[in-house]
Amino acid sequence: MSPVKTYDPCPPRTVAFLGLGVMGHPMAGHLARAGHRVTVFNRTAAKALAWAAEYGGASAPTPREAAAGADFVFCCVGNDDDLRAVALGEMGAFAGMQPGAVFVDHTTASATVARELYAAAAVRNLSFVDAPVSGGQAGAVNGALTVMCGGDAAAFDAMQPVAMAFSRAVTLLGASGAGQLAKMVNQTAVAGMVQALAEAIAFGTRAGLPMKAVLDVIGKGAAQSWQMDNRGPTMIEGKFDFGFAVDWMRKDLGLVLDEARRNGARVPVTALVDQFYADVQAAGGRRWDTSSLITRL
Length: 297
Hints:
9 strands
């Protein structure tokens, strides 16, 4: 159960949520608790039924049926192919959405698929907003995600008050694909920070320093970061059975590297850290938290 959250006033809307993983389940829950009428779909139907029993919403056997009559269809699935599977085709959400409805995708996917689905939605008189999130599972549970959006201003303005049910900030950053590109910026920064923090802790440990005390001191200065505050102590303790999985980070960094090849950006540190994460995978850490980079050291 998520903690108590105070929801901003927003007229109740009819919404669908597709994908009830570690992020989608609490996000959909916040929509229901904020007073919206929520119908959910999940590839494993038992999860959708369990969500409906917990939150008092409804479940549907296909994305198309979940989306029927919805003002907004929110989605949080695994990758580009998963996104296409729930949006397109005879049983996809687009086939069930009413003209004027908005599809809001919270999947971390490519900018290419965002633009593809934006165009496919427009043909049907629908709107598509790419809206990847940052904040991890804790942010989803607490209703405190940061949402980076790309798309048309009118569609964004319509969805933003509804998305605030599970967010602390929802920001439009440009045309279709801009949200996904911003998420790539986020992941590039995170990967570098986690590697730097891992090296710092490993160095301090080898030097015989009391690292919890060291992090407490330097965390009050210029070295402070979310990663240091939230992952530094668990890195020292060797705890990695939680949080954002290495497999997911490698998927995200793959998107960064693909986009960099297209736009000519130089990302040598990101490419190196991606290979470090491959080492962690090979050592059995596919589902460990991304802070497990320190295990290499």
